[in-house]
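Fold Annotation — chain and its backbone

Fields — amino acid sequence, structure tokens

___
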Amino acid sequence: MKTTIAQVGQYVDKEVTIGAWLANKRSSGKIAFLQLRDGTGFIQGVVVKAEVAETLFQQAKSLTQESSLYVTGIVRKDERSSFGYELTVTDLNVIHEAEGYPITPKAHGTEFLMDNRHLWIRSKKQHAVMKIRNEIIKSTYDFFFSKGFTKLDSPILTGSSPEGTSELFHTKYFDEDAFLSQSGQLYAEAGAMALNRVFTFGPTFRAEKSKTRRHLIEFWMIEPEMAFVEHEESLDIQEEYVCYLAEQVRKNCDLELDLLERDKEKLAAIKGPFPRVTYDDALELLHEKGFDDIVWGDDFGSPHETALAEHYDKPVFITRYPKSLKPFYMQPAPDRDDVVLCADLIAPEGYGEIIGGSERIHDYDLLKQEIEAHGLPLDAYQWYLDLRKYGSVPHSGFGLGLERTVAWLSGIEHVRETIAFPRLLNRLYP
């Protein structure tokens, strides 16, 4: 019976064949232990000299790291294994013998590993991170589809910037200027006016010259937009979504979390309600904690976000930021014209902002005024203004950064390990 490592539990005490690669091996005079992987998981294959032909045993002992092979054997329960099973090998058929595999079981430097990222993702820990990322993606679709959202695909090539910044990758679109998208939000708003509740999920690009452990040049964003939803209701949905992601990772990635030595009690504690703290109150709290250099109107940096999250020891919404810090499309607060109805969700354990969201301006004249005040070309945003011209409604949305969320839930320090092929300030290879 041909199967995969992930499915061997269905075949206890039966003989199966698995296509696999040799991740590592060790042997004594009488037994060879083969650490096998097939992309779905890892399992130990045991070759006992007294139970197989001498040629097979010698072949097992001489296998090289990352050689590919078909392995046939009897599936056994193994309580000592975190996986729960091992394979008593009865036959081997080498497909390709690898030579000089560069990533050995010894320690390697980060730059070396990044240069060999195409091979590094085969390792156990990197495999675990990719599986957790996959669970978050699956859970995202499950959550939003269960809530009646429609998936909308926004363009990657755009003629304008949602954030109104210069941190854009410029390209030529035949005889026009174009940019790589830094957000699907504006298009998602158009989708919400047609389909009520939508979400986009795609790559975004920021030409930000940052080298911090939280930043990538190319990253993936989940961006829901919701018609007839005001600010507080949007926060409720964000909270429910994040709690659902944490629950699904904890439920379905137990082996991966153990391999990464993630404190699962931290994930179990991710439950609502999350504190909702205004920027003003957060600033006062920071002053109490000794951050005397930050004044009203300053943005919060990594140390400030970390201090706020540690104070509450759970995700915390920071709301009503100064208008001067936020993009042009955010709805002003009804009682103050110097703050907007927005929120950043700050993750604990030093992972920083994972969600940014707001209620959007739905008044035509006000939005036009803000576009002009920010020095943006009115003609490029005319289609966006049209959304406020033909049946405008209150609406809200947010964006969750996938890689930061993967890093937080998996306990990985740097976002470069949360995507298969990261694009960093100094890295476009491989």
